[in-house]
Amino acid sequence: MLDDFFVRALVAGVGVALVASPLGCFIVWRRLAYFGDTLSHAALFGVALALLLESNITITVFGVSVFIAVALMFLQKRATLSADSLLGLLAHSALALGLVTLAFMTWVRVDLMGFLFGDVLSASVNDITVIYVGGAFVISVMVFIWRPLFAATVNRELAEAEGVNPDRDDVVFMLLMAGVIAMAMKIVGVLLITALLIIPAAAARRFATGPEQMAVLAALIGSASVFAGLFGSLEWDTPSGPSIVVAALLFFIVSISPLAALITQNRPSPIVDGG
């Protein structure tokens, strides 16, 4: 029989996968992988600030992620640098600030590897509560803004002509991403969050014939990755967070294999990238 800590890890990991899936689909459609990286790198700075101020880590990471997202939107309108240059500047600056801040706090013993790569096996009942309550809120908001957000993803100008406010929905989407990263940080770590957001969605894309179906398939693949990764970690004594990501990678490899091509060769896919 599985130990209680392993069951909690499975429940927590599946919760993160279910929440990350719809966001991951929009990250793939909008080509925002580097933006996800930026927010996840900023999470380490949030951890450092939380330890320095003795505040709640999840709330502080969320606040720092929101600040970085707002800073990006401000700099895009003011600076002459390209979006990818700004993302690189913010991502590496936030990560460096986090590491330097942690280095100065000599009175605090920090499991840096745990924050970088996650420790899902240490998930508590409180962590699970945060993931599922916060996740239910994220999913509810995503359902509410799904159609206008997807419309703006496909054609921003047409969406605006139909009365959609893409800027408002973009802000909401960034807030949701910040929330998911804050919740998922303990599960897969700040360096692997983007992978968990992107890889299941990328794997699901090959088999989906519509955006909603892709989100559901991504959730299933993400959940299966959690199960496969954790059982593989238990069997071969490998790190849990990276094992989950490796399992997701294997699902993606299957999705681009000749077998997947045979399954999907006669199935149209209306899913397109946003401009």
Shape: globular
Strand content: under 5%
Alpha-carbon Rg, integer: 19 Å
- List the total number of helices: 12
H/E series? HHHHHHHHHHHH
Largest sheet: none
CATH top level label: Mainly Alpha
Uncertain ranges: none
How many strand elements? 0
Q: Give the helix proportion (percent range).
A: over 70%
The CATH topology is given as: ABC transporter involved in vitamin B12 uptake, BtuC
Classification by helices and strands: mainly alpha
Distance between the termini: 50 Å
Mean of pLDDT: 86
Count of structural domains: 1
Name given to the CATH homologous superfamily: ABC transporter involved in vitamin B12 uptake, BtuC
Label the CATH architecture: Orthogonal Bundle
Summarize the structure.
Helices cover 80% and strands 0% of the residues.
Question: Can you walk through the features of this model?
Answer:
There is one protein chain. The chain is mainly α. It has a single domain, classed as ABC transporter involved in vitamin B12 uptake, BtuC (Orthogonal Bundle). Helices cover 80% and strands 0% of the residues. It has 12 helices and no strands. Helix 10 (211-236) crosses helix 11 (240-255). The longest helix has 30 residues, at 125-154.
